[in-house]
Amino acid sequence: MEIERKFLISALPDLSSFPYHEIEQAYLNEKPVVRIRKSDDRYILTVKGEGILSHEEYELPLSREAYLHLLEKADGRIITKRRYKIPFGSYTIELDLFSGCMDGLILAEVEFPSVEEAERFTPPDWFAADVTYDPRYRNAAMAYGQTDLS
C-alpha cells in the first residue's frame, strides 16, 4: 500500500547536500496504471491500483533489455526528472525537478505509514499548495498529455 501526499513548492531549499536519482519513466497502460521506470541503473515495472491518497502498488525488477523493449511500446510522453531525497523529521521528502516535456515543474511527495498520519501531516514552510487530489499532477496524466498546467 502506498500512501502519499503531493505538493507544489514555493521556494527550493539548498539541494547541494542531498542525494538524488535521475529518473525516466513511461506508461504502458493508464487503468490500471502500468509504468516502467529507469532510476539511475535500476529498472522497475510498477502496477498501481485505484485510489488517490492511498492505493495498492506492486514493483517488479526489470533487466535493462526488458526496460528498453517495453519503452518502445510505451504510450504518451516519457517523463524525466531528478529526484532528491530530503529528510524531514521521521519522513523523507521526494523532491522532483522535472525536465523534458514537463520542464520547470517541481513537486514534492511524502509517503506515510497510514492515512491518518498523512492527514495530520504539517508540511514545511517551503511547500505551497497541496495537489494530492488534483489529477493534473499525476505522472500518468502528464505522460498521456492530459495535463494543462499553464
Radius of gyration from CA coordinates: 15 Å
Counting DSSP H or I runs of 4 or more residues, the number of helices is 3
CATH topology, what is it called?
Hypothetical Protein Pfu-838710-001
**Strand-residue proportion:** over 45%
- Mean pLDDT, to the nearest integer, reads 94
Residue share in helices? 10-25%
CATH class: Mainly Beta
- Main beta sheet strand tally, sense and closure: 10 strands, antiparallel
Given helix and strand content, the structural type is mainly beta
> How many individual domains?
1
Query: Looking at the structure, what is the overall shape?
Result: globular
For the termini, the CA-CA separation is 32 Å
CATH superfamily: Hypothetical Protein Pfu-838710-001
- What string, H for helix and E for strand, traces the elements in order? EEEEEEHEEEHEH
- As residue ranges, the low-confidence spans are none
Offer a concise description of the structure.
The protein is mainly beta and 150 residues long.
What's the layout of helices and strands?
Elements: E1 2-9, E2 20-29, E3 33-39, E4 42-48, E5 54-55, E6 57-62, H1 64-71, E7 75-88, E8 91-100, E9 106-111, H2 115-120, E10 127-130, H3 139-143
Antiparallel strand pairs: 1-5, 1-9, 1-10, 2-3, 2-7, 3-4, 4-6, 7-8, 8-9
